[in-house]
Amino acid sequence: MLNNKKFSWESYNKAPIVGIIRGQSLEVTLEIAKVYLAAGFYTIEVTMNTPEVEKIISTLRIEFPELNVGAGTVCNLKDLEKAVKAGSQFIVTPIIDEEIIKSCVSKEIPIFPGAFTPSEIYKAWSLGASAVKVFPATQLGVAYIKDVLGPLDTIKLLPTGGVSKENIKSFFDVGVVGVGMGSSLLDKHLIKNKDFEGLQNHFKSIKGEIENYIK
User: Fold this and answer.
1) Torsion angle, CA of 172/175/176/178, rounded to 10 degrees?
2) What would the pLDDT profile of 128-142 be if each residue is shown by its tens digit?
């Protein structure tokens, strides 16, 4: 049975990385979650285009109550309704959809909408975003994030797409509130070979890169 626990910012801040799971089975996702938590990570997102996403989200909520479990790639109100019903504690979108943002704000569910230009970023924030997912961050990189945070320094940015172990520190150097990481965090080769011990070590090495930035 699902508990009523809300998103924990305290847990998020212990490791300000959103791990993005896309296209994995329930069985594999549970193995990932086990080593994810053991490595000191607490916030995980399952994309809505993952098969059996609702079952995966609800099972993660039950099996790993310490985790913040959210839904990603939420692009319409129908997806939002499914995600919330499954027990999602936060919502991530690749786009700005005013109805989704306002609905999450009214439900007091943290929402990280995707935006790219300064105007989009400011609009998402003004609508009530908990943090703005700058996507795709790989296109313009750290210099772009730094430039945006010059005039928009009160906005919490969560760059996603292109963040890796090699560059993660540079994003935190310029003042992001966290990052979203998919394949660079959830190493496909290690997962395919079911090397979950290796995956845990990989997680730990990435967390080690940002230890000085953890509150």
Assistant:
1) 50
2) 999 999 998 988 899
